[in-house]
């Protein structure tokens, strides 16, 4: 599927094709072409081709840089520094929210009022259903814009707005917590219908581990003799190469932060309960018993 303004298409043979203007003849555009196996491979080749033309012509001034051009440089520099899941999240925020609204705007003409209007529009009518986005998502967009403009300053590109002055109001929401009675009812049901899945729910209840950490947990991470479990990994489902195909893959990576790698004590009664279902092999996943 082509993305408006980018001239990148998926061909019938499964490859991606990108075109760019490499010159003009008789006032008509002359196109160059690049090819690749994925959308992002072609986009990067296209970006390098345009960049090389720009360097050769020497005609572009920093005042002519659009936010999209700065974003291309930012993604190129950022990709090796962050986890793949984080990189995909940045791409989605850029592709779905920032680029359509601000991608074509010259950075030198970007003002605080543009950003504030952009944030208001996202909060009021953003998203697929046009029902507005959460404050957290809009804050992520502002963070991304701030990082990109910080790179623009490093590249001596004129930046006239101060995103430190742009804030997104965070709404405080009440956290729903089980009462003692609700917890007792849940535990009775899980114990009377005991299974690996229900043991996982109990484990989350007793230790506070995240769902992704539970999915990545292996029996080898649990020491029943010492009654502890070690959280070392998390499981995530992320998008693959392009936001348009909506294909995903499962990844097991390090937890959210280095502080998330931790050792958690287990209640004695629960450790005994786990011992009754511990498989012979300690190399399998906790929820399935399979490697």
UniProtKB/TrEMBL annotation:
Site-specific tyrosine recombinase, which acts by catalyzing the cutting and rejoining of the recombining DNA molecules. Keywords: DNA integration, DNA-binding. InterPro entries: CB (IPR044068), Integrase_catalytic (IPR002104), Integrase_SAM-like_N (IPR004107), Phage_Integrase (IPR050808). Residues 65-153 form the Core-binding (CB) domain. Belongs to the 'phage' integrase family. It comes from the Bacteria. The lineage of its organism: Bacteria, Bacillati, Bacillota, Clostridia, Eubacteriales. It comes from Butyricicoccus intestinisimiae. This is Site-specific integrase. Residues 173-291 form the Tyr recombinase domain. Pfam families: Phage_int_SAM_3, Phage_integrase.
């Amino acid at each position: 599927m082509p993305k408006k303004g980018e001239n990148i298409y998926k061909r019938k043979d499964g490859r991606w094709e990108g075109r760019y203007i490499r010159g003009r003849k008789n006032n008509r555009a002359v196109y160059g072409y690049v090819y690749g196996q994925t959308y992002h491979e072609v986009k990067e080749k296209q970006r390098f081709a345009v960049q090389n033309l720009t360097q050769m012509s020497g005609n572009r001034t920093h005042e002519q840089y659009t936010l999209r051009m700065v974003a291309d440089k930012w993604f190129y520099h950022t990709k090796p520094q962050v986890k793949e899941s984080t990189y995909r999240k940045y791409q989605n925020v850029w592709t779905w929210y920032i680029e359509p609204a601000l991608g074509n705007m010259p950075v030198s003409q970007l003002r605080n009022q543009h950003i504030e209007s952009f944030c208001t529009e996202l909060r009021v009518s953003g998203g697929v259903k046009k029902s507005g986005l959460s404050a957290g998502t809009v804050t992520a967009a502002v963070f991304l814009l701030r990082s990109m403009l910080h790179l623009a300053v490093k590249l001596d590109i004129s930046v006239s707005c101060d995103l430190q002055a742009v804030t997104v109001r965070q709404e405080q929401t009440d956290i729903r917590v089980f009462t003692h009675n609700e917890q007792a009812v849940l535990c009775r049901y899980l114990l009377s219908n005991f299974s690996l899945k229900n043991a996982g729910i109990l484990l989350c209840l007793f230790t506070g581990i995240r769902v992704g950490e539970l999915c990545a947990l292996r029996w080898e991470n649990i020491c029943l003799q010492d009654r502890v479990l070690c959280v070392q990994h998390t499981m995530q489902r992320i998008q693959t190469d392009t936001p348009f195909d909506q294909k995903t893959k499962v990844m097991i990576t390090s937890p959210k932060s280095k502080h998330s790698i931790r050792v958690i004590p287990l209640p004695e009664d629960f450790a005994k309960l786990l011992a009754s279902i511990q498989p012979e092999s300690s190399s399998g996943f906790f929820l399935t018993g399979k490697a």
